[in-house]
Amino acid sequence: MKNVNIFHGTGCTPNSFWFPYVKRELERCYKVWIPLLPNADHPDLKNWLPVAQEGSYTKDTVVIGHSAGCPLALSVIEKLTSPIRLAILVSGYARQKPEWKNPEKILQPSYDWKKIKKNVKELIY
């Protein structure tokens, strides 16, 4: 089944910004899932990843991540056992910036980029 999983970012919900519009438009052709990620003001991979892994991931899946939803999407893709079709990362990041005083808990210490590239046919960022 063709499906899209959309992950919001810090301080957001599935009803923030452009998510409702994109969901409505994509539902014409896809099953769309936008989970409410817990404690969105303080994204933490240990809390968000289990929720994100509840989604369906097949060869026809599209993943869209926004802001802190991007490192979450990368973590999900890295852990897949079979590839998905497409990942779109919007205004995201994948590493700490030196000027950040507190480490971002949504980020992994490092990513297996070879595995990520193997697990997604096309990556747009």
**Total count of domains:** 1
Question: CATH first level: which class?
Answer: Alpha Beta
For the biggest sheet, the summary is: 5 strands, parallel
Total strands: 5
How would you characterize the overall build of this protein?
It is a single chain. The chain is of the alpha/beta class and 125 residues long. The chain has a single domain, classed as 3-Layer(aba) Sandwich (Rossmann fold). Helix content is 27%, strand content 21%. The protein has 4 helices and 5 strands; from the N terminus they run βαβαβαβαβ. α2 packs across α3 and α3 crosses α4. The longest helix is centred in the middle third of the chain and has 11 residues.
In short:
It contains 4 helices and 5 strands.
Which terms summarize this structure?
125 residues, alpha/beta, five-stranded parallel beta sheet, 4 helices, globular
Helices and strands, with pairings:
Elements lengths: L2 E5 L11 H8 L4 E3 L11 H8 L8 E6 L2 H11 L4 E7 L22 H7 E5 L1
Parallel strand pairs: 1-2, 1-3, 3-4, 4-5
